[in-house]
Amino acid sequence: MAMGKILSSGPILRFLLYLVALVSLPADAAVKRYQFDVQVKNVSRLCHAKPIVTVNGMFPGPTIYARDGDRVVINVTNYAQYNMSIHWHGLKQFRNGWADGPAYITQCPIQNGHSYTYDFNVTGQRGTLWWHAHIFWLRATVYGAIVIMPKQGTPFPFPQPYRETDIVLGEWWNNDVEEVVKQGNKLGLPPNTSDAHTINGKPGPLFPCSEKHTFAMEVEQGKTYLLRIINAALNDELFFAVAGHNMTVVEIDAVYTKPFTTQAILIAPGQTTNVLVQANQAPGRYFMAARPFMDAPLTVDNKTATAILQYKGIPNTVLPILPKLPLPNDTAFALSYNAKLRSLNSPLYPANVPLKVDRRLFYTIGLGINPCPTCLNGTRLSASLNNITFVMPHIGLLQAHYFNIKGVYTADFPDRPPQPFNYTGAPLTANLGTTLGTRLSKIAFNSTVELVLQDTNLLTVESHPFHLHGYNFFVVGTGIGNFDPAKDPAKFNLVDPPERNTVGVPTGGWTAIRFRADNPGVWFMHCHLELHTGWGLKTAFVVENGKGPDQSILPPPKDLPPC
């Protein structure tokens, strides 16, 4: 009765109708605002307590929710003792490199006590991405998910799940990560590997003191769940599986795929994978598990992180079942899994693969040894592309490009290695010195680029996940051994290749990618193994402005951090 009275009064009814209209406005127009306070917090894992850098005291950090077409405004205030910058991994940042986040590439870092607002549009993208610190090794604890929903009224191109859950895979060190890295650098050697892997910041009950640090998700019999899986680990490619349940892969790196069913997935640092899981097994408790893939003779943290998928009504006393993960060195699984990834390539979600190539690049990936008088053996390990170990500048490369500041970088990165050799033959252990330099490659606006990334046996072969900022690219080909420019292009998939922002170059093999350089700016390209990035396995593309009004870099924001 009272409600009837309220609704019959004119102004209030009009106001309620106005509210309803607001809610039903097209969601493309929304602005999503977030406040990120970078702060140190004491956290305990594996019987060890330590201060870690977090966003808003959360580990992992908060999830960013947006919709295709939204503007996202994130004010980052730095209360930690370290300089900070945050990268929104996989967002294209069209003409807006100022919001991309890698320190000394598109901005100088945010200093203690200062703020910077990352202001960007989400255009033509939907799916799972993620954000992380992009300076030093701080992304060990400073990371979180980005969930971009399709435009209002646009369904998923797969069965609508009942619920969805973020599954963020990470690594944990008992000691201060920055100190661990400093120690390694002092010796000229790799730092100690992590002490645990984590799922949503928790290692799971196979680790000491971790019963209470176990992520669990409840499911109902007969329902379908979407898992948004992110590999936020620093140095490990990971297998992931759910005991007793198949997974259907429907998206990688926020691009829809042709669905396929698998018992396990492989996911490299920087990558995301969305899978559907049907709760169609006998009600019980089932482990979800993640552990590394490594098919080279190198040391990794080979421990298994676990979380629990628990059917509703099942008591916690029931012991969970462990999944059968591929063996840590199962190259055959890795290659066959990646071969199944295909773009959806439907009328709504076409794969616009560049068929004509304007610029062909061939980059060799190598490890090396350079002199270091203060290091343990008088040498330090390094890494290079085309034998060039990248030296970080002291001001942002994007500023140097935009304001034409001389002496910061040279735009003479070579299109191919200085001299060809048998890249994947017997291990090469002599003449391992590299050239140091801040050398970038200049790319004409809107030109099409084909880049072949070739692993080498300089010291050792190894799998390398490469991430390109500012773009997605098509993975048109991959193979083991040396790339053969005469024969291999005939086998390229130019119809429905996977489209992504981070791709694994197989151990002792090569990967070919194509993209159209339609996003002007300075865009970082680097190995997403933090160890190798720190050793210099990185470069950047300077994509020139086009002639049209909306084909040049936007002016920098007023609060861009000073250098």
UniProtKB/TrEMBL annotation:
Entry's Gene Ontology molecular function annotations: copper ion binding; hydroquinone:oxygen oxidoreductase activity
Similarity comment: Belongs to the multicopper oxidase family.
Start and end residues of each Plastocyanin-like domain: 38-152, 167-313, 412-546
Keyword Oxidoreductase in annotation: yes
Signal peptide stretch: 1-29
GO BP term, example: lignin catabolic process
Cofactor note: Binds 4 Cu cations per monomer.
Protein name: Laccase
GO cellular component: apoplast
SUPFAM superfamilies membership: Cupredoxins (SSF49503)
Protein's job: Lignin degradation and detoxification of lignin-derived products.
Pfam families associated with the record: Cu-oxidase, Cu-oxidase_2, Cu-oxidase_3
Cofactor requirements of the protein: Cu cation
Broad class of the protein's primary localization: secreted
Keywords on record: Apoplast, Copper, Glycoprotein, Lignin degradation, Metal-binding, Oxidoreductase, Repeat, Secreted, Signal
Catalyzed reaction equations: 4 hydroquinone + O2 = 4 benzosemiquinone + 2 H2O
Compartment annotation: Secreted, Extracellular space, Apoplast
